[in-house]
TrEMBL record:
Residues 5-121 form the Response regulatory domain. The modification 4-aspartylphosphate is found at D54. The keyword Phosphoprotein applies. The lineage of its organism: Bacteria, Pseudomonadati, Pseudomonadota, Alphaproteobacteria, Acetobacterales. It holds the Pfam family Response_reg. This is Response regulator. Coiled coil: none annotated.
């Protein structure tokens, strides 16, 4: 196994648990946070390789976390995949401009997560 790490950030416990199962299945050690502030503190404690980040959360939303993380940790680490129900193209552009490597629409499944993690550089492409 590997020691790749991923932080799952979502205010929904159900979404965090579903994402954890999928991402652990891809070989990652997963930690969870329920909002952007908690996620920022988790990143300061131990910077993960990747972050699966919800957009709409209380306390600190995903885009605010994304900008704060990029300002504090730089443009490439951790690799951030923004996950949301927001389908508008302008929102996708906003996420990518703020520093997300990839973008996932909810609901997602294991195949979608694997594909987006490959595109974000978190996984080697499947043979």
């Amino acid at each position: 196994m590997t020691d790749r790490t991923c932080l799952v950030v979502d205010d929904s416990l159900v979404v965090r648990k579903a994402a954890r199962r999928i991402i652990e299945g891809l070989g990652f050690t997963v930690t969870e946070a329920k909002d952007g502030q908690e996620a920022l503190e988790a990143c300061r404690a131990r910077l993960p390789d990747g972050v699966l980040l919800d957009w709409n959360m209380p306390v600190m939303d995903g885009i605010t976390f994304l900008r704060a993380a990029r300002a504090e940790f730089g443009p490439d680490h951790p690799r951030i995949v923004l996950c949301t129900t927001e389908a508008e193209f302008a929102r996708i552009v906003q996420a990518l401009e703020a520093g997300a490597q990839e973008y996932v629409m909810k609901p997602f499944d294991a195949e979608i997560i694997r594909d987006k993690f490959e595109q974000a550089g978190l996984l080697e492409p499947a043979a």
